[in-house]
Amino acid sequence: MTLQQLKYVIEVARSRSISKAAQKLFISQPSLSNALKELEQEMGITIFSRTNKGIVITPEGSEFLGYARQVVEQAELLENRYADRQSPQQHFAVSTQHYAFAVSAFVRLLEDYDRDEYEFALRETKTYEIIDDVKNLRSEIGILYVNDFNKKVIQKFLREGDLLFNELFEATPHVFISSRNPLAKQDYVTLSDLHPYPYLSFEQGAYNSFYFSEEILSTLSRPKNIRVSDRATIFNLLIGLNGYTISTGVISHELNDRDIVAVPLKVDERMTVGYITHKNITISPLAKIYIEYLKETIAEELLVL
Fold this sequence. Notes:
Layout: H1 3-15, H2 18-25, H3 29-43, E1 48-51, E2 54-57, H4 59-82, E3 90-96, H5 100-112, E4 118-124, H6 127-135, E5 141-146, H7 151-160, E6 163-171, E7 174-178, H8 191-194, E8 199-202, E9 225-228, H9 231-240, E10 245-247, E11 260-264, E12 271-278, H10 285-304
Parallel strand pairs: 3-4, 3-5, 8-9
Antiparallel strand pairs: 1-2, 5-12, 6-12, 7-10, 7-11
């Protein structure tokens, strides 16, 4: 086993394709495939399953990748300490439900990260894909919520993926509405108050289960329903159609102007928002810094509520 082979494995896992990884590594695809096979034979494990849709990281491969990343990171630290060369390009990725505080923390991380080269990723995506991204090491951190309704199902998927849920904060549900909405001046709103207005929610694709919904009370029947795929669209529709959506109430006015307001929803529900990590992976220094920025951003926004 060589350090180069470990780097190959990490790049293939990141690219999700042997051909794409070969291009980034500037080697031929057959050479990369042979190097992976030799490593798998030496270790006596299967790191990647080859399918007609591409490669899939096996459970034992996920564990191996965790150790491989630590070895490569330690080797890079040694090189940076004792070799007269620039720091290597750093990688960091987050997958999250559509939360403004996750974006704000990401912005703060980039503002303080003074490097000439890096490759970061922020994926606002579907609930199942967040879990899958962290499980398969496409992201170090995943951000989502649990409550009494979805907890058992989400925890089942986390257990199967060797993932840990770490609580960030507990929230009471709020509705996000336009500041011009007639309900915006009320101290709170009820479900009956919302009945005349369009309900906006994030679509969940192939895993469009109530348990994966980003919004609580997803099983309720509503006369007007609109599903969207990104946060900018939902904010535009909140204003343009006087629609509403349900979330934590934590909204960043630095990234989103004050055309959107959060009003408490009078229901007997709680939401626990947290971040997930892989059980077998030691998170990177960048991930630790990002988590601290998450906590700081959330604390600042909660003071405004």
